[in-house]
Design goal:
The complex is a heterodimer of chains A (about 90) and B (about 220).
Chain A lengths: L1 H21 L22 H46 L1
Chain B lengths: L1 H24 L13 H28 L2 H32 L8 H22 L4 H25 L8 H4 L3 H43 L1
Classes of the chains: A mainly alpha (about 90), B mainly alpha (about 220).
């Protein structure tokens, strides 16, 4: 008799217990103040700001350098061609 | 142009030297703190990305409808600057997002449409570089398509649900943030004009070299 009652109780409560276990966690009711978060979970802002700023400089200086390199090559090519045209016109 | 160019270079150098001090003097934002300082070079770069896309699109339209070689050279110069400023936006944005949102990237309307805009102009440059003869016309049409995309990228934050701040954030800046922000915008705009002029000059020289090659062959 005891076994039957225990079995019935299990049959009644087990599905409910399983459903309860599958429920998502309760939604966050309020925001946690920043000071209570452990130090290990905090991302430092300064390296990110400096990293982003450094990237801007690298991108801009890299582009200026690429312009200067292309301009130098073209000027050399232009001078060579002008020399060839003048030589051709002279002969 | 040379008379304005040198003073502009000096002004830009002075402004960029003082920019970190000006940005540091701006007050910290209440919820984001120090990382919000990225705003002072992320947003001016985004503004110039849009401006450059418009310059490239309009110059391409002039080239396509009036066959102006000079307009085509302006379009190419502006197209390259779209990619440069777009790269700055797409790198500094995720760095800011990692700290502010907890993720590097979110596939929402603003971020995805910005990436697509940048990719259109990367494709524009690739067509110009590897497309062979006549590719400038195809690239010109791509630039028009890219320019048409800009208003959608701009308003995307107002119409779709996104983590990105809305367009109103610039107009509602706190008084202490307004000065440093517009200082940064001015510095970046002067730099943009200088780079556009230099890049256009490079294309003018390239055209001159091509004409001389033809003269030598004849």
């Amino acid at each position: 008799m005891k076994k039957t009652v225990l079995l019935l109780v299990l049959l009644v409560f087990l599905p409910g217990a399983l459903l309860w276990a599958q429920q998502p966690a309760a939604p966050q009711g309020d925001f946690v103040p920043l000071s209570s978060i452990p130090q290990t979970e905090q991302l430092p802002a300064a390296p990110m700001v400096i990293g982003a700023y450094a990237f801007v400089w690298v991108a801009l200086l890299g582009y200026v350098w690429s312009l200067w390199r292309r301009m130098t090559r073209l000027e050399r090519e232009l001078a060579d061609l002008q020399r060839r045209v003048q030589k051709h016109e002279g002969s | 142009m040379t008379r304005i160019f040198v003073p502009l270079v000096i002004i830009a150098m002075v402004m960029f030297a003082f920019a970190p001090l000006v940005v540091a003097s701006a007050p910290l934002e209440q919820t984001m703190g120090l990382v919000q300082k990225i705003f002072y070079f992320h947003v001016p770069s985004a503004m110039l990305l849009f401006v450059s896309a418009f310059v490239c699109g309009i110059a391409s339209a002039i080239f396509l409808f009036r066959r102006s070689a000079a307009a085509d050279r302006v379009a190419l110069a502006a197209g390259e600057l779209v990619v440069l400023f777009g790269l700055i936006v797409l790198v500094t944005g995720p760095i800011w997002a990692r700290k502010a949102w907890g993720v590097w990237w979110e596939w929402d309307a603003r971020l995805t449409s910005s990436l697509l805009l940048w990719m259109i102009f990367v494709a524009y440059l690739m067509v110009r570089r590897f497309g062979g003869p006549g590719s400038e016309k195809l690239a010109g049409a791509m630039a028009l398509f890219g320019m048409a995309n800009v208003p959608f990228v701009y308003v995307s934050v107002n119409y779709w649900r996104t983590l990105h701040p809305k367009t109103s954030v610039v107009m509602t800046l706190a008084p202490g943030m307004r000065g440093p922000f517009w200082f940064s915008v001015a510095a970046f705009t002067i730099l943009y004009l200088l780079l556009l002029t230099l890049r256009k000059r490079l294309e003018d020289r390239q055209a001159m070299v091509e004409q001389l090659y033809l003269a030598v062959e004849e």
